[in-house]
Amino acid sequence: MAEDGIDDFALAKRKAAKQLGVAEGQGLPGNDEIEAELRAYRELYQAGEHPALVAELLGVALDAMRALERFNPYLTGPVLKGTAGPYAEIDLHLFPESAKDLEMFHLERNIAFTTRESRRFSGDRRRAACVYSLTWDGAPVNLSVLDPRDERVALKTSVAGRALERAGIAEVGALLRDAAPPARVF
Questions:
Q1: Which of 47, 60, 92, 106 is most exposed, with the fewest beta carbons within 10 Å of its own?
Q2: Is 90 helix (H, G, I), strand (E, B) or coil?
């Protein structure tokens, strides 16, 4: 994950299982264990560039969130967790009153995008999400459009999965202030 830029735990596990010649899920570590080792790897081998990369991605995410504020944006995924690598995509959840308004937002600003369908879960209920993929300030961004009624609900990527962490504009601003390298005094 650290070297190939993979952010999807399931994909990384499938690749590892194939390379090891074992059945998927057989003796492989859990996501929490992988995340802890990924953090340790980045601290050891990427201590110089990784904090700057995360700060840069947080800055782009915050800029996008401010522009999309009327759609109730939340940052989630590897950028929020601080484990994002050089190929990371910024993942934002949006809860607009009207999905058409979001599409108009992009069209009025000539922002090119593609769409795909995704899913999230709340308890055992499946939630459909339209995902807009685009580039914002040179970084890949995924905007998952969810029902506004789900804004206060814990969403997961699978029925059995854990709740996705999310942060609003104020929290991302605080993370960015904490992530920014200290100013040099001459």
A1: 47
A2: strand
Spell 131-152 as b/e; 16+ CB within 10 A means b. bbebebeebebbbbbbeeebee
Which residue has 């390298």 as its token pair? 181
Show the tokens assigned to 63: 């800029």
What is the pLDDT confidence band of residue 185, given thresholds at 50, 70 and 90?
A: very low
Contacts 24+ apart (CB under 8 A), 78-84: 78/7, 79/54, 80/165, 80/166, 80/167, 80/172, 80/175, 81/35, 81/165, 82/39, 82/54, 82/179, 83/35, 83/38, 83/39, 83/42, 84/7, 84/53, 84/54, 84/57
CA distance 35 to 155: 19
How far apart CA 28 and CA 24 sit, in angstroms, is 8
Distance CA 180, CA 54 (A): 9
Rounded to whole angstroms, the Cα distance separating 164 from 10 reads 15
Answer whether residue 182 shows pLDDT above 60. no
Look at residue 143 and give its three-state secondary structure.
Answer: strand
Q: Which residues are registered as beta bridge partners of 129?
A: 118
| Burial class, 58, CB count within 10 angstroms (exposed 0-12 / middle 13-18 / buried 19+) | buried
Answer yes or no: are the C-beta atoms of 106 and 134 closer than 8 Å.
yes
Task: Quote the CA–CA distance of 120 and 129 in Å, as a whole number.
Answer: 7
